[in-house]
Amino acid sequence: MIKNLSELKYRCKVCGYIYDPDKGDEKRGISSGVQFEDLPDKWRCPVCSYTKSHFYQVKDGYRQEV
Ligand SMILES: [Zn+2]
After folding, report:
1. Which of 5, 20, 30, 55 would be a feasible disulfide site paired with 24, CB 3.0-4.6 Å?
2. Distance, CA 18 to ligand 1 centroid (Å)?
3. Order of strands, edge to edge, in the sheet holding 9-12?
4. Measured between alpha carbons, how far is 45 from 61 in angstroms, rounded to an integer?
5. Distance (Å) from CA 42 to ligand 1 centroid
6. Could you tell me the pLDDT band of residue 66, with boundaries at 50, 70 and 90?
7. Residue pLDDT, tens place only, 16-54
8. Separation of 13 CA from ligand 1 center, angstroms?
9. CATH topology for 5-64?
10. Angstrom distance (rounded) from CA 37 to CA 16
11. DSSP label at 39?
């Protein structure tokens, strides 16, 4: 079963920053409701500036390598 994507968060495995689609990334013009997968390819971690490929999916404390 695949849960609603809006419940999925992604964590930067470099610095631990979590992208939460319910919050978005205001500082970079990403409004709330934007899914991680819909972020522009040039979006980077606001903390360490690593690319999206350094993020993995987290869900309810369970984490999974992407
Ligand atoms: Zn990071």
Report:
1. 30
2. 8
3. 18-19, 9-12, 55-59, 62-64
4. 20
5. 14
6. low
7. 999 999 999 999 999 999 999 999 999 999 999 999 999
8. 7
9. Rubrerythrin, domain 2 (2.20.28)
10. 18
11. S
Q: Identity (one letter) of the amino acid at 66?
A: V
User: Is the dihedral angle over the CA atoms 14, 61, 30, 41 positive or is it negative?
Assistant: positive
Residue 59 pairs in a beta bridge with: 62
Q: What is the three-state SS of 11-55? A: EECCCCCEECCCCCEHHHCECCCCCHHHCCCCCECCCCCCEHHHE
| pTM for the predicted model, two decimal places | 0.77
- CA of 44 relative to ligand 1 center, distance in Å: 8
56 three-state secondary structure = strand
- Ligand 1 center from residue 2 Cα (angstroms): 26
Q: Determine the distance separating the centroid of ligand 1 and the alpha carbon of 23, expressed in angstroms.
A: 16
Q: Which one, of 49, 62, 47, 61, lies nearest residue 16 by Cα?
A: 47
